[in-house]
Protein 1
Amino acid sequence: MGKIGNEKKITISPITRIEGHAQVTILLNEDDSVKEALFKVVDFRGFEKFTEGRPFYEMPSITSRACGICPVSHLLASAKACDAIVGVNPPKTAILLRRLMHMGQLIQSHALNFFHLSSPDLLLGFDSDPAQRNIFGLIEKQPELAMRGIKLRKFGQEIIEKVAGRKIHSSDWILPGGAKWPLTQERADYLCANLPEALDSTQKTLEMYKKMLEGLEEEVENFGNFPSYYMGLVTPDGGLEHYDGKIRIMDKNGKVAAECVDPAKYREFIGEAVEPWSFMKFPYFKAIGYPGGAYRVGPLARLNVASHCGTPLADEELKEFKKLGKNGVVQSTFHYHYARLIELLFCIETAKKLLEDPEILSEHVTSKALVNNYEGVGVAEAPRGTLIHHYKVDPQGMITWNNMIIATEHNNIAYNMAVTQVAKKYVKAKQLQEGMLNRVEAVIRAFDPCLSCATHAVGSMPLDVKLIDANGRIVDHKVR
Amino acid sequence: MSVNIIKLKIDGVEVTVPEGTAILKAAKDSGIIIPTLCNLEGLTAYGGCRLCLVEVSGTPKLFPACSTPVGPNMEITTQSDKLKEYRKMAVQMLLAERTHICSVCVADDHCELQAMANQLGVDHVMFERNWSQDEIDSTHDFLVIDRNRCILCTRCIRVCDQIEGVHTLDLKLRGKDSQVIMDLDEHWGNSCSCTSCRKCAKVCPVGAIYIEGEPIEHTKKRDIAEFIVERRNRR
């Protein structure tokens, strides 16, 4: 707790159990009530700038290094942008394998967020001892559940490994125009053999979560429960989609506000604003403007914008899920957890469907071509939401311009709305307790942000630097 | 013509080789491997990487094993703490000189510099890195040169000259500013002498010259490079 001028503030730094570094500053009124809370990202990367001049086909391997949690999503968005640059359609088998690898990515990332990062709050309690409120505490108290989570995550990573060679950063495998090598029968058999256990674990966890939800009405009501727009990819008939399809933006009443059939035209719908106090950009829905055009992405948004999942078990769960909101639009950020578990179910069912496709073992996985277009956009649904890679190249295929909009960034306005809401409800500055602040962190965890991904940008970051000497005089002042 | 056979000691082992043999070759024939990056059997020695430096008793100087001929009764040491430190330093200087980021390099896992760093236990670079930002030339239909990854071993230049017999590639400038060039510093795509034989990519120990779209493990198959030079030797 500190004081700036007449304004008092509480800083939570760093926020724990999220991917990356961030802090929340809570500004207080004179009477110590909460005025506003700001979610500040303090990571700084630079991918958009330092990739300039590199060959386009290196982009999947370079950009996927932005993140060790969701490298596959970067690989796919980047490879799709490269597909557009060479102007070819990858063979069907390559697409099936890319989709299968993506299912592995979603399974491992969702399992990581739910079991390793968020469930300690949900199962051990928001006010429990912080030293115990982690995966190790969970292993001690609920070993069976913790083991289920660890195994599920392992299975997700194994899918990636069997398809692309490595659990993390398997950038060797993906190529513009397809993939480098096919899937072997032996590897496919291994994955098929492990699917039933993964499905069983997910179903058990979903049942447990639904029962647990009955005691969490207060959190559901106050954890980022506000109307906003929602964005996500959908199939041509409006179903849940993670690899291809069209971008759909939906309003708080469940009405489709915009549909971007060609995701390459994303800039007609999305604007990007910057604030001087954060290294993360603030995307907004252009038709409404900034900051009113706040929208959310990720599991909650995807289930809101999709009319169906397309797999039997997940479809049943989706029907039940949609009942939680008006017109089928669920608006509490707390329900990201629920949505994540339904997606887990969908991913396991989809992985099974993909592995049963007779063409998945075909050896034709690469379409070869050189640079045919000087611009390419790739869009994929990362675990945390819509991920956009947009490149421009010169005739030799060297990157001249690069814009990446990362899933976590889309939620930026929503983060600030959510932390303000939670802080106003729970933080009592006069009797400050750790559990109060943990709830502020927990709403961030519900979004599952990935800040190292989200702060890839460099260039026009506003900076306000003051050089002050020992006597407190301002020697130099520069504003960029 | 009779060849004079001489005796010498390498790491305490007595060996017998024809006079004039390079220390590196004499050691290899006796099963002693001296690390090197620029040397490739079948090409003339260059002595540029300084990794094959060895100690010769009676003199405080270190000698590059690839370009130093053996002499009668020489006592050569190929492994010592001092040499290991020198070799580690040489690898670090190579890494610091230009832009080497293994994780995103086309030659990751198939790179001789990376393997050498691992072998010598180079886990960090003590020198300030240069982070060169030279333009990548991909004007050729399929051959690409990224000079930021070049370690100036000149294998490509020598293979082009001595095996392919073309001499499309050469060096310009000096010291750390040296650059591998094509013809009279043309873009590769404009070179009128290049036969597109790919030998330069095959012998490149790092990811500086590669074939676009071809898996690097295929390009860098060492047996192909050795096959090329073996044919040369037979000729």
Protein 2
Amino acid sequence: MTLRASCFNRTVICKNLARLWPALVLFGAGMLYLWVLIPIKDVVGEAYNSYYYAYENIIYQAPIMTVAAALCCAGYAFDFLHKKKSCHYFHSLPLNRKTLFCSAFLSGLLVFLLPLLFSALSGTLLITLRMTRVLFLLRLHWECMAYILCQFLVFYAIAVLSMVLCGRNLHSILTYLCLNFLVPVVCTLLSALVAPCTYGIEELVLGDGERFAPILVWFEVEPFTRIYDSCRVSTSGVWKLPWIYTGICVLCGGLLVWLSYRIFRRAMAEHAEQGIAIPSFHGPLSYFLTLVLGCALTMILLLTFHSNVIDISDLNLTVLVTVMLLCSLPCFFLMEMLLKRTKKVFTLRNVGRFGCYVAFILIFVLCFSTDLFGIVRRVPEAEKVESVQISFATRDYSVEDAENIEAIRSLHQQFIDARDALEEEEEPFGALFNPRITYTLKNGRTVERYYAMNLNSKNPEVKALSENIRAYFSTTESNLRYIDEMMKDMVNVELYIPYHFRTPFSESSKTLTAKQRISLVEAMKSDARAGNFSLFLYSPEGEALELRIGKISKYDDIGYWTHIYIPKESSTAYALVRGILGVSGSLE
Amino acid sequence: MIRVENLSKRFEKVQALDACSLHVPKGSVYGLLGPNGAGKSTVIRHITGIYQADAGQVLIDGAPVYDNPAAKARFAYIPDEIFHFHSSNLRDMMKFTRGLYPGFDSALYEELVQLFGLDPKANLRGFSKGMLKQAAFILAISSRPEILILDEPVDGLDPVMRRQVWSLILREVAQRQVTVLVSSHNLRELEDVCDHVGIMHKGKMLLQRSLSEMQENIVKVQGVFPEGLPHDLPVLHRSNVGKIETLILRGEPKIIEQRLEETKPVFMELMPLNLEEIFIYELGGVNYDFKSILL
């Protein structure tokens, strides 16, 4: 029956769903495992943490599943376009193109949606049966499901666009892979190319503080996970429903679907004859694929010949650019051959086009390597700054007064001046700290800078900077502000006992009573006022105490933050802690 | 019924159709003829709404076909290569077709399945090309269309089955006034069934007429002409064996006969041309190597 009023044709959808049963079974089995078996495991084992982390894992592993599923669904639903017989058959049916497109699109979507929904509902049932922390787990469960669904929607839209854009299966898969998997590779390599300009700017840096981490980036900086991470507001360890993420996904997916539909309406049936929907798209597609494959080939070469691909920062930029351009050369002509289906691509015109590509890359690299736009050197002028937030180790607070703003600007300038020394002294493991300075300007904009420094550096320049930072954070005002921030909303404090005070039967930590907590805070403040306080940064010298401060979260959950405490012997807090632990001698 | 006006289509560097026009009257059986690459299938794909024209238009009873489900629901199309879903059987295809064509006649379907002797539960993947054609015929005719569009319809069928298929089509024409547009290389078969013919060459419609009109406008003459032939006589082909000349001439037989009589031939005989000969001599006139498609 043809539903004339709707965009969908029931016959086509039912037929597609019946045809796609292998995918339905496959996805159903996979999702049942993820959404039902893991909750069952939790229900049986009462392992709240494993349940929570299982969802974390799903979030980070979901792209792999959804990327494959999206290609599978779009491939199934739109494969008729790539075969002359089926393409002509479908287009000769009494359906308009809108109905045909929408029906195929919906059937592909349902293949993922139905098993997901079934599994999610089953998971919900099991969580409800669990009877404890139901609301928290349900929220986690559905948030996770919404995330995966949104992610699938975007991937599916990309897959449909690839199917619709290209008239050959090979072209479609290549385009899809390029768009999904290889784009991060390009981003990674481009981040290496723009490395001179990424100093201090996290937004241009891929990976968490790892400027050059291609392999990690590949998996961790999958674009949509990154968008999700950006949108997910983490307050006291609590997730908020990623509405912004959902909005972005729906918007991106919608735009891609709209674009696919426009192409579908315009030139779909001719695919079988022409190989690509819009011949004029050959040029941009060729450039795009050249860039992606050129970067990918460069990465493979780096993997093969460079001992430590995780850190390619020691590679000379000139070498990197040269290798990339040399790798792009065969890729460019290969793409031309593939797209135009001819071997006669070695023409003067194509050489010129490749020249344009080279020129673009060189200009791009030159602009960034010389910091043409002054991004790295920028320290906002004091009169334009509304407030500054500074994060360093466990300290994280805002200042608004001119004196403090100027002090932080001065520190910022020192970071910029000590750039070479800091980069030389970076250690991936050990005493590496990441100070972050965020300016809120009077015009409402923010400028955020993020650095890495080794506090144990022997380099005099870094050492001086480190001392300056210590000096800034050791003022009475700073210490009092820190203690207030640290103790805000506190519900629980655990004091970790140093190893040499433990017996084989003693606890590793001691939870303070409410009275002890108050006493400790007062003692700390008293010490701070007397200039006898050093609850401060990481220091390898001496035995430190750890304070684990628990704060209540929205989900009835307690999140813990660890603070390192290096007590001074003469301090009041020191005496108090010693008393609490029942230690008569020195803590060290 | 079907009107194609100045249809043009270009595929990259190939001009597949160049201002091609044709008109298929209601209730007629229209044969679309032409050598390989002439553009027959491209025209048909425009008529069936598969391709979008670069220029010109395709109308069914005045309504454009492209992206128009109402117009497309009026015809059934049997392409040269038959499509079927993976691992499906005739019954599955029937259910799908029935869902799309509201006028689908299930009783007729059962009757035709019996007539052709096909197993409706057998996987279509195991069917030969001829059997697939039969299956497509069953589905197309059971859809009760007003127009049947057939691209090389009996290709792959054995002679008995060809006859059966044609008789079925003609029965539909006779009983329900179905309009048939058929493209084929098999001129002899078209000659038996078509009442209108269009000849295409290099994307253009060379000529289109009713078959009777066409046969009346071209004449084959054998004779001995000692005084030679008039210079302005429209000769399409001329050959001789000894003194006996064979002429293919364009024009009305009576007028040609009169003009030839004026040359006082020793002997002269007018002979009818079959469709194949018309096809060959028309295309021969536009420098087409007709020998390569002699059937």
Protein 3
Amino acid sequence: MKKENYIRLEFPSKSVNEAFARAAVACFAAQTDPTLEELSDIKTAVSEAVTNCIVHAYPQSIGKICLRAAILEDNSVEIVVKDWGRGIDDIEKAREPMFTTGGDERSGMGFTIMESFMDELRVRSAPGRGTTVTMRRKISLRGKRAG
Amino acid sequence: MVNVTASGGDGRLRLSLSGELDHHSARDGMTRIGRALDDYMPRECVIDMSGLSFMDSSGIALILRVYRRMRECGGRLLIEAPQNQPRRVLDASGIDRVVKIQDTVKGADK
């Protein structure tokens, strides 16, 4: 699908960047005239995806995270979060609610929340080579845009 | 950043959270909460979320850790007044199966 607009961010896997990443995507996605709920859902999903990179992809080191966001011609927002870290051995298992390898500081609900808050979630990963999470959320057309 | 304010006494502890609760802020938040639990040793702990504008699943992990601590000592945990975004995360996690969530701050409607 044709991209109407896009951004690309690259940042190190420092936890202080979680707030920056979700705020940056929310600012960009605001162009689609979302409701507050749609915008906060996107922020939450971005926070989960970026946190996964920081906690799981690079557990003992600082690595690179690439975040791309695009507004598509059907007024949906597509977000791609990519890392070059440890990768996921069993994606199906990782997507199960409450499954975590992160100890009691993690709830194991990250993918569940991404799935709940976005319309589509795709996860591609290769052990030792990294993970790419692609999410899409359709933004409802409101007011003048809907007419 | 998440701010934690502890108040109470007489077996009760109110933890008022404000700001944003994510993985970055959760560790510091849990340290402060752990200290408050040690100081007050409550039978009932209330997490007042009315000032919390954002929370992701790191907040669920934090609540579960408080829940386990309260359960270990026979106490109970209650969550109060979450704003819309944290409420949606709480609902998606299904945590209301183990922790009671009250939509308003106790006494606020009086």
Protein 4
Amino acid sequence: MHITPAARFLPSGDTALVVEFSDRIDRRVSALVLTLAEKLDAAAIPGVIEVVPTFRSLMVHYEPLRLPQAELRQRLGPLIEGMAATERDGRHWRLPACYDESLGPDLADVAQRTGLSVHQVVERHSATTFHVYMMGFLPGFPYLGDLPPELELPRRESPRIKVPAGSIAIAMAMTSIYSLESPGGWHLIGRTPVPLWDLRRDPPVLLAAGDKIIFEPISLREFEALTAKLTEGDYRIAPEAAPSSGTRA
Amino acid sequence: MTAALRVVSPGLMTTLQDLGRPGYQNLGIPVSGALDPVSLRAANALAGNPPGSAALEIAYQGPTLAVEADSVRLAYAGAAAGIEVLSGDEEAGTRRLAPLQSMRLRRGQVVRIGALNGGAVAYLAVEGGFAVAPVLGSRSTYVRAGIGGIEGRALKAGDLVPMAQVYAEDREEMMLPSLPLTAPSRFRIVLGPQDDYFTPRGIETLLEATYTVTPASDRMGMRLDGPALEHAKGFNIVSDGIAPGSIQVPGNGLPIVLLADRQTTGGYPKVATVISADLPALGRLTPGCKVAFTAIGIEAAEAARRQMMADLEDLTRQLAPVRHESAIDAARLMASNLVSGVVNAREGNPEGA
């Protein structure tokens, strides 16, 4: 069923406009955001520079001297009208994840605070197919959801000054992978050897909003072997073929 | 043949910047680019470059650079600084490079740029531009991800910054009569997108208070000190996009204006956005500068941008040949006339021999 979703236009100065569908994190809202992003890309409206999907809104960056905001609003109306909140098929990735406590220093703490065993934490985290809601915070940093509710925790009280690149982390209803070494306040539960940011790739960023991710547990030995292979350049990760849309609810 | 500027001393934070790297914010890659695109364009116009060519962005303390090319034409625009040109041979002595005019330097000469005065940034452009491979369509340095410029970082001593041209074109030096770089008494903002996260009193504070730029400011954001803004419903929002000039207000109520290296998304409410026409002036502010805001509508903001772009177009029309150089040329011309006059006199008197 196609219902015109309620959208608010919020100016962000004279060169960006927010199209806000909601103020919460929700897969249906995310579907609306990503659908509009796709439609705007396809429409190739002169004056639109780029669009940035977020959890609940789409930011449209534009050149007002080619496309004044009033005109942009008019062009957006028909694109939003009748839009369905249908999740599109993104790329599917299986990312090797090493949940060894040497690489996930908060595993024991997370287990203790959630009342689960370390094994159960890993099991739940690696049994979920995550949706990339948006990219942000760092180049190539994906916001993945939704975390199984029993793993939800607030951010750490004291953020770390240095989180190594590749760290798999959780906070609130989200999980992510630090794409670059950076300060960070999420709980570190493991690490992937696959670089999310690699300048030898074009673009250097691996993931994009709308992708689906499954973490595949690997041992510390496998982690080290993959890391070595990656350094030598003889390991490449590619998305799997997406399951046919017929299997989707 | 290679041509380069060799970094003798790097200055405080000298990076290559152009007009930025739009098009990848959906992957979390910031736009970056010059903090003061007006001065960047001026430097490029003087050097005879397209407006968006990459130039050295100099922050607070300038670098010392040696010419390793047959010749190079330099142009400097932005905050005032003492700029000495040290000659290779002692007898030639020291010259000065005036801001807003181009100058040709020879191999072995050294340009030494001192402390910046009255502004945070300035730009040094070279004729033909710098020969650095663009990353994702831009030469702008973004240090956090190590991309653009020289190895994705600020210059350091010993670097060779490659130039596209081996020698400077033989042409007149150009100057600009002036470049208005004074800050507006009030920076113009458009309220939103999350002005509803602030109480009426919070908005009033923003529009009436005077803030001070703190030293904790960088290319990512300008942190302001002053009266705290009163939030209406907490200071966490579900992350959404960040625009250039977004004014985000974290829990302490103090505004942060997001600049060139801003993150693409963020989870603090953004009370307002500095209009694009006033952003270059904001990028020039140094710690201790006073900042006040006034709210305007979107049409007025668009009109201001139109005016700024028209003024920038006008820059190239204002370019004029440097006068004292033409005076030297006139003297040279006269000298050669005298010589040829002698020759002519001789030739004109065949019987005299």
